[in-house]
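Study this pair:
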Amino acid sequence: MALTPMIRALAWTVPLLACPALAQPSSGISEGEVRIGVLTDLSSVYSDLAGSGSVLAARMAVEEFQATHRPAFPIRVLSADHQNKPDVASTKARSWMDVEKVDVIVDLPASSVSLAVVKLAKEKSRLVIVSGAASTRITNEDCTPTALHWTYDTYALATGTARAVLKRGGDTWYFITADYAGGRALEKDASEVVVAGGGKVVGRSTHPFPGSDFSSYLMAAQASKAKVIALANAGNDTTNTIKQAAEFGITKKQSLAATLMFITDVHSLGLEKAQDMYLTEGFYWDLDEQTRAWSRRFYAQQKRMPTMAQAGVYSSVLHYLKAVQAGRTDEAMAVVGKMRELPVSDMFARNGKLRSDGRMVHDMYLVQVKKPAESKYPWDYYHVRQVIPGDQAFMPLEKSLCSTLKSAGR
C-alpha cells in the first residue's frame, strides 16, 4: 500500500540504532549515543532530489561506518519534513536540539530553510551540514563556526554552466528566477560570469515559489530574443519551466540553461526534452566503479539513482562519524576541527578538504544531457564534458566575507 506524505514522514522518524549489540556508550559522547537528524523535504518540490533518498543515504553511511569502523558508541538517525518553511524547520530543529539532544542536522534543501537552521545551530552550539541548499551565504555573509556546506553552491553551479554556454556562443541571457535566496544567488553568480565573459543580460523575470504556470515569464524571455534563457530555480519549478518552454516551441530558437538541475529532473523530463542541455553536477552515479557500486545499492532500496544532494548527505554523515570517532567526542567545535584535519575520501569526494569558512571543496563536473539515441541503459543520461577541480569550482577563500575567517586571521 502506498504511504501518504504524512505517514511517510512519520515512518522515517523511526530511529536507526546501529548494531546496538556491539555498541557500548563512550564517555566522550553526550547522552551516550550520536544522534543525527535529517531535516529534509519529504512531501514537496524537493522531495525527489532530497527527501526519503537523503534519509536513506544517511542510513547507508551509518551502516557502512558501523561495519567498517566498529565504533564504541551507538548511532541514531531521525528525520523530519520541513515543508520548505523556515519556521517549521526552526521549530523542529529547536525540538531536536533541546529535547532529543540531536548532535548534527544534515541535508536541509531550500536556502531559506538552511539559513534559519544555521542561525539556530550557532545559538545552540550544534553542528549543521548542508547538502541540499545552494546559497553561498551559508559559508559567506551568514557563515558560522558550526555550519558546513558540503555538496554544491550557487557559485560552483552557475559559474560552471555559464562559462560552458558562453564558450558556445550564448552571449545574451534572460533569467527566469525563483523569488528566494537560492534563486537570487544563482542569478547573481551566473550574471557576473556572463558579463565578465563579454556577454550581456538583457532581462529577467521573477516568479513566486513554488510556481506552476511559467507562460508569462517564458513569453517575456521569448520576446527579449536572448540566445539563452537561464533558469535560476530548482526542482519542480525547473522541470515545469522546461516542459512549458518545449510546448511553446521556444527551444527551437533559444537555448535553455539550468543553473541548478538534478538527474531526477532529467529523468522526470525525459531525454527528448532535456537533451543537449549543459549543467554542473557535484556527483554522477555512472562516473566510475566506485560511484556505480554505491549507487546500485542505493537504487536497490530507492528504485532511482541518487542525486548529488543525496550522495552529499552520505559523504557528510560518513565524514562526520569518522571525526567523532577520531576525536572521541561529539562536541560540535571539536568535531569540526577533526573534520578539517581528516581528508574527505569516499565515493563522492576523492580528494575533498574542509576549508576554514565551512566550505567542503571537491571536484565538480560539467555534463551535457545525452540525446535519446545516445543513452544505452536506464539512467545513462550524461556526457561528462569536464572535470572542474575544486579550487577552481568554488569561490576563492580570499573573496569570502565570512566573519569567522577574520577572527581566525584567515
